[in-house]
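Risk register update: the risk of archive-format incompatibility is retired. Evidence:
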Amino acid sequence: YFIQSNLRAKAAMIIKEVIMNDTQLEGSDKVVKRFENFDTFYESLSSTHTTTDSTADTYLGSILIVCMVVGIPGNLVSLVYFAKQARSGSRTVYDLLYSLTSSTDLCTLITALGPVSVLLGQTDRAPGVFSSPAFCSAWTVAFYFVTRFSLFVVMVISVCRTVAIRSPFHVINKVAVLCSCIGYAAWILAKDAFFIGMGAVSIMSHSDWASCIFTYKPGLGVAYVGFVAVELIVVTLIILANFLLCCYSLLTTPTQSTALAERFRRVSRTIAIFTSLCLACAIPVVLLLILTLERVDMSHEVLKYFRFLSYVFLVILNAALNPVVYMMLMPSYRQWMRNHAKICAGRSENEKGGDQKERDEIAMKEKTEKVQL
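Archived output:
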């Protein structure tokens, strides 16, 4: 029955475990009893494609398009601003870290093209561009890299702010911060390359995620999942702890009238809101990861959408909202935007004036020629 039904890797793994078990009948009974009947068991394993609500997919795809329209230009402008600040004489460690955040957010929004094409496709979440193994592999590695790396950068920002709050006169070593970010990026890439090369992890398209995902095999693949789980949980907990410390400091520290104290408080408030937005988008991923490790049945329709919302949608939404946070909470960023808008407007006026002057000269020349004739 299993062979004729052409079941995929997930069924083959379960069958293999049952066959290798000494108590075969008891093991198979445990597997089947997780479902109300065998038909449901068969349906949950037979395909990575599930039926979804096309209306909901249209709304989700449209929201992702809006995120791309708003977030890509916003992160480009933010990257230019923070990169200039990082190269200037008044640069701080936050300018460097915000430059990295803008870069990763920009890459995240570009990768949103894949899920959008699936959500707005003609058929019910057909793989589309993800049917190509090369594109599927490249997209998965890139998307999950920028997701984990951006979360790490937010953690570094929150830790630096906590250090500044507890020790205002301590000078944070920008080289050490940059080396830590580069080291973590190298760790992510090396770890993924090792486990993929060893065959412990594979990449496949899945309609629940409207994209491609990492799938792991028993043994070494479980170690990979353990590494990722520890990374995400530890990093999220560190961000949460620093966020709470920052909020406690803002609530308990008396407000001072000096400009320096007000600027220090404003920076702390900005970072608190920035990290809270990241936490709101990261905690669902951690919860879903815990549910997966606990082998909770994810066949319910709501949980299927929870997968996509946690792993893909909220990550892209966070990347699109970060430039909005910069614009609303950073006066220097707003002033820089206004200055450049005035410069562009002044250039446009000068170009218009120059064009009009040239047209007037041509008209005068033609009039002179007519008079001479």
